[in-house]
Design brief:
alpha+beta; Immunoglobulin-like; eight-stranded antiparallel beta sheet; about 20% helix; globular
Length: about 200
């Protein structure tokens, strides 16, 4: 191997090492977009309860848990997770953020659906802003902010509550995308409100 060839190889290796070192240094200075400690993410848990004594008697083993991971400040949205067991099986339920948990509900935001399987279990996860969710309303000519920090779930189809209330007894409510839902099934009236900003 000639002396000239060995000099060229040594220079190439030195340049490669220098580039690798600068790449490592640059990557260590770059801020991560991922939380460094997942356990440090603030969250709130709440349990939804049946909206009436009649519905509670028809679904005596219902357990509907909501966990909200409050990450809007870090990544631009929160994560709203619903996990339920003991629901009426094979039905879809609409999920809303509300001004008030019970009728007349006030302002409402439709955020998604969950669908129970044959055993009555359901789960879903929604990405949206929860902690700062609000409705802007015009009241007496002035713009008013209304926080949406309560939760409600409706039977997505008017006939889906017949098993408990009787055929056509629950009526039709507007709490679905097609403007035809059953009665409210569960709400957060017995839980602390979701955190307001």
């Amino acid at each position: 191997m000639s002396l000239q060839y060995r000099s060229i190889m040594a220079a190439a290796l030195a340049a490669t090492a220098a580039l690798a070192g600068s790449a490592v240094a640059a990557s260590s200075d770059h801020a991560s977009s991922h939380p460094r400690n997942a356990a440090a993410v603030p969250s709130q848990k709440l349990e939804l309860t049946a909206s009436s004594a009649q519905l509670a008697a028809c679904m005596p083993h219902a357990d509907v848990d909501v966990t909200v991971k409050l990450t809007t400040d870090d990544i631009g949205f929160d994560t709203f997770q619903v996990k339920a067991t003991g629901l009426a099986p094979n039905r879809s339920y609409t999920v809303f953020l509300l001004e008030k948990a019970e009728s007349d509900f006030g302002a409402a935001e439709y955020i998604g659906d969950i669908t129970s399987d044959a055993t009555g279990a359901a789960r879903n996860s929604f990405k949206l802003i929860v902690q700062e969710a609000f409705s802007s309303q015009l009241v007496n000519g002035s713009r008013v902010r209304v926080d949406l920090n309560r939760v409600g779930m409706w039977f997505a189809d008017p006939k889906d509550d017949d098993f408990c209330l009787g055929k056509n007894q629950g009526g039709v409510t507007p709490f679905d995308g097609d403007n035809e839902a059953g009665v409210q099934a569960f709400n957060s009236r017995n839980a602390a409100p979701l955190p307001a900003p």
